[in-house]
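Morning. Coffee machine broken again, so started the prediction first thing and wrote up yesterday's gels while waiting. Chain of 350 residues, entered below exactly as on the submission form.
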Amino acid sequence: MREKTLAQIIPLSLFATWSIAHADEHAYNYFSPGSLDNTLDLYLPDTLVPGTPTVLFIHGGGWYSGDKNDMLPLLTPLVEAGYAAVSCNYTLSTTTVPSYPQAVHDVKAVVQWIRTDADGHGLSPTIAVCGPSAGGHLTEMLATTSGVEIFEPLGDFDGGYRIQAGVPFFGLCDFVMQVDLGGDDTGPFMAFLGGPLKGNEATYIEASPITWIDADDTPMSLAHGTYDATHHIEQARVMHMALEALGVFCHLDEYDGDHSFSSYDWTDQDGTVLHGYEAATTMLQEQIPVLLAAGRSADVDQNGTVATDDLLAVLAGWGACPDLPVDCPADIDGDGEVAVEDLLMVIASW
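Came back before lunch.
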């Protein structure tokens, strides 16, 4: 497993009620020592086709408020499109007890739950993660900290903690930068991180996704409003530039809006401009396959080595790729078909 330690990193500090038609919902507890809210809901479509990625939703709320049910307007259309969706709660901060790093431990534990405890539901270990605001920050932490032991107290397991796609909406990558830019979100920062920046610089740096980036990180699609007064637009721009400089695929979607879904716009593949939650759910359905394709390599099973199992995976997937939303990881070159070229890419990377 790839390992990262803080000492090896150079800091880069520069609700609505919604129903799901024809879906099967289950409530569970996941295992995360120290968690104050280790609950999640699993939503399954009528038919879950093997190979369809699992989508994990992480709610926002400044790390001190919010609930997994807040994500229903986003996850509903994806479940109806055939995805399995997990929406989780995590430990929230109070005025006296910070929730960092417990909140990070919790969402890591949800990844473990999907890959170990939920296999009886047919969930794919290919995981795309989405979250707004604080949920966007936690999405970026999952995308950048695979192998960071301080965030993974549960230890190793089959499949590991690495996610395959991250879609943070108006998230945050650098707490120090946000304070330096004069952001008005310092109250939640102090509650989450245990105090103001002065005197807690190491914690603010450690809790920032930008601190941990490297060339093995997860592809991401960032959506951020240019008028966001809570998390400055530079939070997305800096992460975008830093990942691209490392060769990690990152799409930046700047929109003329604020820190909310109500001002979000997305132009779909047909050229139609959509608004609000409809825009966000359409963006997810269009961008998740793009991110998954961007992260493909000859290591088809994503276990860290190119070996016989990857060769066998290509042979097993031979032919045209299935229709979306089913993923096709053996299509390494992304041409819609598993063929000789993909086989040669595995052999060349052996």
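The mean pLDDT is 90. Going to sketch it on the whiteboard this afternoon.
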